[in-house]
TrEMBL record, chain A:
It comes from the Bacteria. PANTHER family: GLYCINE BETAINE/PROLINE BETAINE TRANSPORT SYSTEM PERMEASE PROTEIN PROW, GLYCINE BETAINE_PROLINE BETAINE TRANSPORT SYSTEM PERMEASE PROTEIN PROW. The lineage of its organism: Bacteria, Pseudomonadati, Pseudomonadota, Alphaproteobacteria, Hyphomicrobiales. Pfam families: BPD_transp_1 (PF00528). It is a multi-pass membrane protein. It is found in: Cell membrane. Residues 93-272 form the ABC transmembrane type-1 domain. One of its GO terms (molecular function) is amine transmembrane transporter activity. Belongs to the binding-protein-dependent transport system permease family. Coiled coil: none annotated. This is Glycine betaine/proline transport system permease protein. CDD domains: TM_PBP2. InterPro entries: MetI-like, MetI-like_sf.
Automatic annotation (TrEMBL), chain B:
NCBIfam families: proV. Residues 5-265 form the ABC transporter domain. The keyword ATP-binding applies. GO terms for molecular function: ABC-type quaternary ammonium compound transporting activity; ATP binding; ATP hydrolysis activity. The complex is probably composed of two ATP-binding proteins (TmoW), two transmembrane proteins (TmoV) and a solute-binding protein (TmoX). The complex is probably composed of two ATP-binding proteins, two transmembrane proteins and a solute-binding protein. The keyword RNA-binding does not apply. It is found in: Cell inner membrane. This is Quaternary amine transport ATP-binding protein. Residues 392-416 are annotated as: Disordered. It is an enzyme of class 7 (translocase). Its main location: membrane. Its EC number is 7.6.2.9.
Amino acid sequence: MRPSDFLVIPFDEWINIFVRGWLVPNFRPFFRAVQVPITQVLNGLDAVLAFVPMLAITAIFAALAFKYVGRGMAIFTIVGFFFIDMIGLWPETMTTLSMIITAVLFCCVIGIPLGIVAARSDLVWKFARPMLDVMQTIPSFVYLVPIVMLFGVGMAPGIIATIIFALPPIVRLTNLGIRNVRADLVEAAEAFGSTPLQMLFDLQLPLAMRTIMAGLNQTLMLALSMVVIAALIGGGGLGLVVNTGLGRLDVGGATAGGVGIVILAIVLDRITQGLGEQSKVKTVSLRQTLISMFRPGANAPAETGKVAP
Amino acid sequence: MAAKLKIKNLTKIFGPSPAEALKRLRAGESKATIFEATGNTVGVNSASFDVEQGQIFVVMGLSGSGKSTLVRMLNGLIKPTGGSIHIDGEDIAACSPATLRRVRREKVAMVFQHFALFPHMSVIDNAAYGLKIKGVAPDERRERAQAALDQVGLSAHAESKPSDLSGGMQQRVGLARGLATDPEVLLMDEPFGALDPLIRRDVQDELLRLQKTLKKTIIFITHDLNEALLLGDRIAIMKDGEVVQIGTAQDIVSQPANDYVAAFVADIDRGRVFTAETVAVEPAVLQLDGDTAGDAVRTMEEQNRGAVYVLDGEQIAGVVTYQQAAAADRESGTSDVPIAEVMITDYPSADPGTQLVDLYGHASTGLPIAVTDADNKLVGVVEPEAVFAQLSGDPAQDEAPPAPLADDAAQPAAAR
Ligand SMILES: Nc1ncnc2c1ncn2[C@@H]1O[C@H](COP(=O)(O)OP(=O)(O)O)[C@@H](O)[C@H]1O
Ligand SMILES: [Mg+2]
């Protein structure tokens, strides 16, 4: 004897009825409209990246890597990008890059304000938190089907799937960063008559920036990890190369695509991490560090750099 | 002088059911029993006091006595459970958020215990913060912030980050930030509590120096009685959320309202609290021309004094002791001895504001100390015994209290 002898719940039927019978017919125009900005941003980026010569793009990324990470990373960027070009995957890599930048851009546009609102209202956070948990734990294949039904196939639906998957970290870490701003500083700002917006821009965002950048980095990494899955519903680029290789059991092609993704991931990861380090509150200037190195009596920067108790 | 702040029955209860706790509080239950029964914490219990324009009003109490809660209600950072706060007639306890913001921008600034400087801004941007919030244009903002930094002696560090400065300097920045908007009221929550004793002394003196010219109305919170006595024009002592005594430093030390306050002031350096004028009495005087040694003896016997001062018109000429006057009078038989012959011209003198610690030396000469005003006119005398009696905490003039020279307005009734 078991429960299903008494009651069988046609759960899948319900979902079908809900999605096919109600959501799709009633909201089709809405879902079409949602794609428009995504498509436009993507097309714009795609055009720019296709137009700019390969060497120029490499130079830009190498310069960023040099500025925010160091010389080693700059060299890696040049070697890696040259390698991608030489294995013939440069155009696909640029397509993937524009997809990822688009997805991350929308994640920021949606996620940072959401994180701010969540940080300011316990009620909002109470609702947002389980939703973010669900978004992160549902296997992405599960929502590919409804996405295809609602949005069709193509680049934009692929990016939408990516956005859903990559959104949680930036919301979480924006929320966390703002909530972690020292309470006495918030109180001080309030005591001088700050409005909530003044507080946000003068105090909370600058002090939370490092955490928010960590969120951006995680979001970017999640977006990269969706590249192959997004290709299943019509996203192009390196993901498509991997998928095609998989379909034909062409191990060489699949590996080439995979290597391209890995190189891109490493470069983007390190640069955004470096960006995050930059935006932390500087407590010790370079000058001071140098002075303390040459003057044995001077306090170590780690000591003088501490925020007052 | 008008009262700048009028605080009446101000009460704050933290916790899930303030209304119930308030009822119990009104019924006379203690903070501890209310917490046990209802889980509510009494932060401040029915505090009432006025603060005069231009005064430093010190709130003193042990940790947890409700000082921070009290001061935070004054600018609305904590919303009172009951009571009223009028600043220039405007009720802070019952005004809109917009009004509250205006009051904070225009009128009431705050200085914090742990400085609460913004770590991502330079010192001058920190000092200019209040002006920025008010919408002052960048150029003027910089100028005024720089002026505020000048006041606290930090102009050279304008471009540093707060973390590059020592604790004492950081709190000067906090003070500059508070002063830059030129507020009328300054709230200071244990501003020097986190500083080393030596540095604390420095910034205390600095505050007193600034206050001489600025004449702000200052609410100053401290847990250090010495600091309270040094800075406070008036002092409120808090215990378990209640104000147990309000008065001048001298009121509190000389007439503690209860055992709690008495225990507090027991090991206070009374020599620094009391001044010459608090122990001075009306002088008995003679005139240089006309009066004789015999007159001096009679005056001293009538008034039961050991010495009298001799005036030459308005100015002090010297002092005559009973022994010398009596001896001269006896030896001369029936002829009169001019008073100038027995007068000591090297007499001890002090300002009314001189602290008793600085009168030790004078008092040990045995002569009464002449208390003189700015024009060197004799306004009172301090008997040596009075100095030692006051220092020992036992002003033994119960039967004949000294007539304090200070006018009565400055000596309000001690306890409420
Ligand atoms: N936000 C709060 N929630 C609950 N209880 C509080 C809160 N703030 C202060 N209290 C309580 O109120 C009392 C007074 O605290 P406080 O004003 O900080 O004292 P003080 O500044 O004199 O040390 C203490 O018992 C404290 O535990
Ligand atoms: Mg406190």
